[in-house]
Structure formats: structure tokens, C-alpha cells
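Final report, closing paragraph on structural work. Over the funding period we assembled a curated collection of sequence-structure pairs, and we close with a single example.
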Amino acid sequence: MASAFNIGKLFGIQFRLHYTWFIIFALVTVSLSWQYFPSAYPGWNQFFYWVLGIATSLLLFASVVAHELAHSLVSRLNGIPVKSITLFIFGGMAQIAREVTRPGMELRMAAAGPICSLAIAGFFYLVYLLTQSIIEPVAVMAYYLFYINMALAIFNLIPGFPLDGGRVFRSLLWHFTGSYKRSTQIAVWLGRGIGYLFIFVGILAIFIHPFGLNWFSGLWLAFIGWFLESAASASYRQVKWRDALRGFSASQVMTTNSPLISPDITVSQLVQSYILTGGGHSFMVVSEGRVEGVLTLENIKSVPQRRWSVTKVREIMTPLERLAVAHPDQDALDILEQMDEKEINQIAVVDGGRVIGLIDRNNLIRFLRVRSELGV
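Its predicted structure, as stored:
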């Protein structure tokens, strides 16, 4: 996800922050420091309200991390590796290496997050009971975090994909209908419908304040609705692409006409002679008729442009011995999942010890787009 950046790993899982996290963090902090705490607990120092607001927002963020970790750890227990988690302050999205294979597996994975949020809510309510007559600021934060974690659990149980409730709903449909694709489609339609409903009510709240909602609540609802609709559409697109690969083999999606280049040419020569004129994205590096490795645009991007004229292809290529391989009859979806699990972008197709083709992520995306445009 290009609009997110890495912040570190926990339990071996890469965590990333989406740019919307900063928007939501700012909205939460402002609403707590400027409205909620001053109106509920008047008389405190204004600076203290802001300190309390920031601390509460950070604890809310930690609660979301725990919620997503619960999903991911249960996923691992079911044999599904988790590549990364992208966080939005009221939720997150895990990138798994492959899709679930049984409805019961998905049910357990989806339910883990809301159960974790309910447990966190119970913890903060206990803290509130223990501190309400002793340390009021701690009790204030604890009560808000109890309330918001309850709300997070309830919100995620809304039966619209890709929320946890939508995944629970899909797993139940899948169990009773036996169709993963059809169940996903229905859950996505519901998720998008709920997203549009949130946007509609949010816009109404900004202008005419129905149901006692104010403009700020309307802004929240509209933003959440937009996010939900976008996430549902993106999730379904990913499911469709994966489904479209079923039944195809490596030999059907591989590229056999990758340009052959010498390991001794410079990156500058490669760019001028092959990329700018021919538009190539991946190249077989060959010396004396033998394939030595593969070069892609990702390899080239790793080199500062000022060094292109002095950097040779052999210095930045992926050597053949480090290249993942597939056999010609291997399932294309299995290859995509292998790429996701190993965090690689290309795989060599080998037959009888000889490289006969190359599959990279761009090839697969292009293959899927062409099929989609042709309606086949």
C-alpha cells in the first residue's frame, strides 16, 4: 500500500501506518482535548486537557494494535502467515499470504478481534472502578477507553465486508452455500451499502443535524463510510483477481520473451537501450548462453541515478541461485501466494533445470487486467 509506511515489527509482523491514521489521530485528540474532557470535567488546566487527550489517543492506538494482533496470531495458529498489518486508528487491515480455505477458519480469525476489544474494554472498566475515587485523570481516561473499545468491538461486528462482522457473515454464508465467491460478493455488497449509508447520514448530520447528531459526528460518519466503501471495493477486487488465477498454470502466465542482457552493461546503458525505448520491466541476465540472474525495475530503483553510469547489471541483479523457482504446471494462484509469503516480486519458471520463462507481479496484474477488460 503506497500510502502507508513501516513503523516496525511485532511478533515478526510488519506494522504500517496509513496516512489516514494521522487525520483520525488529530480528530480524536482535538475532540477529546477541546470538547469531551473540558465539558465532562470542567476546571482543569487547558494544557492538561491536551496532555490527557494525546495520552488517550495513543492508548486507543495501542488497543487497535492489540485488536489486529489477535486476528493475526489466530491466523498463524490456523497456518496462514501474515505479511503485514496496516493501521488506521479505528481499525486495521492484515495482508495475509493466502486466503482461508474453510469457513470455520475464517470465523475464528474474524471473531478474535472483537473478543480482544471486549477483553480490553473490561480491563479499562476495572481500572476505572479502582481509580475513580483515587486518581481522577486515570479514571477519566480508563472510562473513555472502556467506552471506545466497546464501540470498536460493536462497530467491527457490523455485518459488512471487510469488517470483522462482514467476515463472520461471509463465513456463515460460505458454510451454508458452499460458495466462497458468492458469499464474498454478498458480504461486499452489504459492506458497500453500509458505507454509503454512513456517508449519507454523515452529510445530513453536517447540514440538518438528524437524530441529534452534530456536524462533527457527521464528519466522523462520512469519513468512516468512505473508508468502509473503499476498503470493501478493494477487498473484493483482490478476491476477484485471485479467483481469476484459478485454473491457470505457470506456463500460461509466464513471460517467455524477456529481453536478454549482458551482466557487464551499465544501468545507464540498460535504461537508454532497453527501458526508455522498449518499455521492458524485467530482463534475463545471460552470459555465454547461460542465465545468471534476473533484473527488474525494483533492482534499478535501488541504485541512485547518479551512479547508473558506473554500476553494472551483475552488481544489482538477483542471482539465479537466490531466485525462487516454479515448475511449468504449477498453479498460478499458488505462485502468487508464494510471492506474498516470501515477499518477492518475481519467480523463474524452470523445466528440466533450464529457465524457460519468468513470472513477475506486473505480469500477473497485466494478465488479470486484460482478462477483466475482455470479460473472460
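DSSP finds 13 helices and eleven strands in the chain. The radius of gyration is 25 Å. We thank the funder for supporting this effort.
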